[in-house]
Specification:
Elements (H helix, E strand, L loop, with lengths): L6 H19 L9 H4 L19 H9 L9 H7 L10 E4 L6 H10 L2 E6 L2 H13 L8 E3 L12 E7 L8 H11 E14 L7 H9 L9 H11 L1 E8 L1 H18 L7 H23 L2 E10 L14
Parallel strand pairs: 1-2, 1-4, 2-3, 4-5
Antiparallel strand pairs: 5-7, 6-7
């Protein structure tokens, strides 16, 4: 993208970029890292009087960051690179088990002609995602519906591939969740899971409590050893275990760089600017937690083995 900062520069500057955006939005002094950010003035264009301005939807801000239908770090280009190991084609059946508003599912379907089912725990996100799929004429190729991740089930052997971005860290019964996924995969079916992983040696640090307070549902992140043990016990053949903390932080920074270069923040009413401040501070705290090492981001790529847990192991008592 012309005029966009180099990724390596942004990676090196990640802590100060968001801090300076927040500083500019608050009207504080300080050198801006990009020209658009330098032009931001929290008091500019603020109405002197008149009716109250409706609040700016946080999901709108997140789509300004990463694109229509995307509410977590990473745009369509990033997702397509992430799922490259799938070697997706139109004959495959796929599942996105943390679909949000379906941006990733639609991007994958458009790129590979694949039918991909989207499941999302937040009913509002699922509703909005289905509306976006219908508007794009993709209600059959990329439908989105709501589930409860603590109780949901999948048809046995239904999917060739499952994408699970940030799908497990807020799930309490993660072992059951993983059992459901392997039962839903065909033999040698592919699982790509990215998630936050806890460092138990740093669990007492204040950055963890700050990060925890930001989450929409109570988080219960596993350690790397817990993921490894669970995959092994369920018969997954784990091919990749990779620390992608750097990539996650870079996607956060790239999103904010995109926002300040494409959104005319100066023209927004003051309440909307303050909402952007709140969103920026949310991601500053996330980067603080990642930099402190209290949580890390990991990518797991695994194949489903022939041995499967029994269906009775996922049945919830009524």
């Amino acid at each position: 993208m012309a005029g966009r900062a180099d990724s390596s520069d942004l990676a090196a500057a990640r802590p100060s970029l968001l801090a300076r955006i927040v500083s500019r939005l608050r009207g504080e002094a300080g050198e801006a890292m990009t020209a658009p950010a330098a032009e931001i003035d929290i008091d500019a264009a603020a109405p002197a009087s008149g009716p109250p301005v409706p609040p700016l939807d946080p999901l709108t801000i997140r789509q300004w960051l990463w694109g229509p239908g995307f509410h977590q770090p990473g745009n369509a280009e990033y997702v397509l690179k992430l799922v490259k190991p799938f070697a997706a084609n139109p004959a495959m059946s796929m599942l996105d088990v943390a679909a949000g508003m379906g941006g990733a599912a639609r991007a994958i379907s458009e790129a590979f002609g694949t039918y991909i089912t989207g499941l999302e725990r937040d009913p509002d996100l699922a509703r909005r995602g289905m509306e976006m799929s219908i508007a794009a004429g993709m209600q059959r190729h990329a439908p989105v519906s709501a589930i409860d991740p603590e109780t949901f089930e999948l048809r046995t052997g239904a999917f060739d591939c499952i994408l699970a971005r940030g799908a497990t860290y807020m799930v309490q019964d993660k072992e059951r969740f993983m059992r459901v996924l392997i039962l839903g995969l065909k033999q040698r079916g592919q699982l790509l899971l990215t998630d936050y992983v806890l460092d138990p040696g740093r669990a007492g640090r204040p950055e963890l409590a700050l990060w925890t307070s930001l989450q929409p549902y109570p988080p219960n992140p596993w350690t790397l050893q817990q993921y490894t043990d669970c995959f092994k016990s369920l018969g997954f053949d784990v091919r990749i275990t990779e620390d992608i903390t750097h990539d996650l932080k870079l996607q956060i920074v790239l999103g904010w760089d995109h926002l300040v270069q494409t959104v005319d923040i100066k023209a927004l009413p003051r309440p909307h600017k303050l909402q952007i401040v709140n969103e920026a501070e949310r991601w500053v705290k996330t980067i603080m937690a990642l930099d402190a090492g209290v949580v890390k981001a990991y990518r797991f790529y695994a194949l489903a083995g022939s041995a499967r847990p029994p269906l009775s192991s996922i049945r919830k008592s009524r």
